[in-house]
Specification:
The chain has 554 residues and is of the alpha/beta class. It has a domain of 104 residues: Arc Repressor Mutant, subunit A. It is built from 24 helices and 13 strands. The protein has a four-stranded parallel sheet with strand order 3-2-1-9. It has a three-stranded antiparallel sheet with strand order 5-6-7, with no helix packed on it. Helix 3 links the parallel strand 2 and strand 3. Helix 14 crosses helix 15 and helix 19 crosses helix 21. The longest helix is centred in the N-terminal third of the chain and has 19 residues. It is elongated, with a radius of gyration of 32 Å. The protein starts with 6 loop residues before the first helix and ends with a helix.
Amino acid sequence: MAKAKLWIEKAADMTERHAQKHRPDQGSIVCASGISPSGPIHIGNLREEMTVHLVAEELRRRGHTVDHIHSWDDFDRLRKIPASVPKEFEKYIGQPLAEIPDPFDEHPSYADRFISDFEQSMEQLGVEMRSIRQAKAYRNGAYVEQIKLALEKRAVIFDCLVQYQTEGRHEESLEARREKYYPFQIYCHACNRDSTVISNYQADTATLSYACTTCKHEATFSLNDECPGKLVWKADWPMRWHFEKVAFEPGGDDHGTPGSSYTVGKEIIRDVYDDVAPCFIKYAFVGMGGATKISSSSGGGATPADALRVLEPAMLRWLYVRRDAGQQFNVEFGDELIRAYDEWDKLSTQVANETASEKQIKIYNTAKHTATAEVRTSDTPVSFRLLSSVADIANGDLKQILRIVGDHLDDHEIDKDSLEPRLSCALNWLEEYVPTDQRTHVQASFDQTTWDQLEEQQKECVSRFIEMADTQWDLKNLTSLVYGVPKLSLGFELDSPPNDDIKTAQRSFFVAMYQLMVDSETGPRLPTLLLSLGQERVLGLLTPPATPSAANLG
């Protein structure tokens, strides 16, 4: 019986067959990705990158030489202003992203601002890619011969596109529109906007004439001398497949439907460049929290850098590895983040204990290792639930955090470096994503009002706990006591098995303890809270002040 394969392995199989059939003499298998740096590059865009990276890595593991090329589409026009950019930048709409200044004067261009952040995150994730800046490639004339061919065969491109268009949308006849069609968009020499209309192309001299509808500038130039424009998207993509000899490139759901970029691109690369389209798989969108789709131009949503502030790099990779490319999912930044860490730790333990399935081992190893290196995780695997809870109680105090974690692990030599990057992830999560009203706020002193409102059984349990904990202040004994004291109050032994009455008494006792210490009916795990606050402070919060005797009153 054939073993089940990961989606990554299936895509690699397909790419191998494609390369062997269509590019047998090529020295490397080219896998391509591309992103337009129109604004903050979000975790939705990361799926494009990770899909290609993971397939490229699988091919490398099989012994292939692989070239993961990444196109920065910085010669795209600025379409709209994301929320993170000043509104005054609307004046640059229509200009190429690479030629607009950085809004905050920290990078060479608008595009560089967003590219720089993303590439730093890719290094942390172990993604190796060869970046191609499309503005430079176009301006330097890299694609001039391919552009000439597209212009000479513009009627072919038009016919490929028009078959998917709704009839009756245009006032002009099909023939008139075909005659006027040019699959090339020029940036005006005067205002550098793409609001230009081409009026003529002379193939023998590669000369184009145009007029700008914004500034009214008119000009004629030859592609042999300069290239101040780019092919329209649906012609640009197949041109680059041909130019780079791409064997694999995925796309979002919207690129794989009838009449979409890939469907049309397959025809254009065949009919214009006498070549074949690369292997293609559709990937679903990735959201943040409850969002179903993140638009890369909107300015809202989390970037990979944001995610890496709360997720270990290997764990962020794991979120993309474990789900089929076509499966939509959210990267959670709320309480579900703790559950995700628990799942990751469980998988890590299963792999270490050799109880994981073959598929689980593949997923884990792909997340934790590239073909040549290991992706960073914490040396000491302390649960995120514990770290975040301790960091919350200790209010971020590193010395306190290390002391409490050391008590939990029975390792008092533990240091900060061994807990990284998870410790920083926990601290960042607390500060950036946990609302203030959900943080732990320790009482300043004993709360007499709360004490007076407790039931007698609750008071009895608290007093018994204080008495018994005096010489048992360690994690094991505190855990035994917080569950055992309510049993004693009902006449059971400390180690008696729980029943409904015991569980009720335990819940009542926990509520009393939390109310006295953190003014809430819930909180961090009680033993963790007690260890974190320390014996002296806990006793101060749980012990009523002594009542003056009658003799002293006299």
